[in-house]
Every structure is written in C-alpha cells, then in structure tokens.
Amino acid sequence: MKEDLLNLMKQRRTIYTLGKDVNFSEAELNQLITDVVKEAPSAFNSQTTRVVFTYGQAHEKVWDMTLAELKKVTPAEAFGNTEAKVNGAFKAGFGTMLWYTDMDKVKELEEGFPLYAENFYDWSEQHIGNAQFAAWTALAENGLGASLQHYNPLIDEAVKAEFDIPDNWRLRGEMPFGSVESTPDDKDYIDDGIRFKSFN
C-alpha cells in the first residue's frame, strides 16, 4: 500500500521556531497555496474559504496588531511572556496567511438549500480545515514550517481595517510560516482503541 501522503502528513508539524530563510518567492508560495486550497473538498462544492497572504511589513503588522490587542487584555506581569512568544514564534516567520470564511456564501447556501440550512456553517468549517491541512502539508513538503493560531476574534477589527477585509469575511485563524529553525518534539498519540472502531 502506498504511503506517500501518510509520510507527508508526518512531516506536517506545529513549528514554533520559524525563520525567514525561505528560497521561494512570494509569488511561488501564493500560487502553491492557491492551488491546494482550490483542490480542497467542500460540501456542495461551496468553496467558502478565503485566504489573505501577508509578507514583509504586512506580515509584521499582523503580529504588531495582535500584540497591541493582547496588551489590552493580558495582565501586565504576564505580557512579557506573551510578547516573547508572539515575536519569537510568529512574527519571526517569513509570512502569515489569514484564513477567512465568506459568510455571504454560507448565507446564500442556507437560503438556497433550506433543508440543509443548519449544516452549512459546520460544513464551511470542515472546508477551511481541509484547506488549512492541505496548505500546511504543502508547506511541509517544501521544507517549510507553520503553525495555526486563533487570535480571532480579538484581532478581527484591527486586521479588517488594516487590510480592507470585506465585512462578510469571518476570520477563522492565522497561519505564520517560514523556515524551520528547530525540530519539534516527538508527537504523542491517544491509544487507537479509544479513537477507532471497525465493523463488518
């Protein structure tokens, strides 16, 4: 049995030590992620996921805005550790992808297929998860690291204003990426007997 995909999946890890030593152009990375997101499956072929690519000053601005919002809600004595994490694990990377769901598209589907209306938002979450996994794995295949962060909704308004994000796009996650500066620890797994069942 072929295991090429499985081996790629094993390469995809959460990397918190990112750098800027990347040998691909921004255009090449954008095209790679665009292509894999387009191939990610979605219910009713709804294609509800949207991606904003940030590099250079725009990438750094994402994390500066994040720190500014975090400073408002983080106890002063804890902010130093928060600042170090954001600067070292996220801002230090080469770029950041902002992942959105187009809520107008979700609403259109809810109204167009009322029998399934209550499912379409859940299905949009499945789609964005599929797309994020595909993008993350494609980066790993090319020797790059990433992590998936969730500072939304804390940063939603600041990011929306800075990058002219449409009102109907809902921020669902931030994916900083770049060169892998150190390898992660081994991954732990829950016992298979707890997670899987098989019948015939």
UniProtKB/TrEMBL annotation:
Pfam families referenced in this protein's UniProt entry, alphabetically: Nitroreductase (PF00881)
Nitroreductase domain boundaries: 10-178
Identification of the protein by name: Oxidoreductase
Organism taxonomic ancestry: Bacteria, Bacillati, Bacillota, Bacilli, Lactobacillales
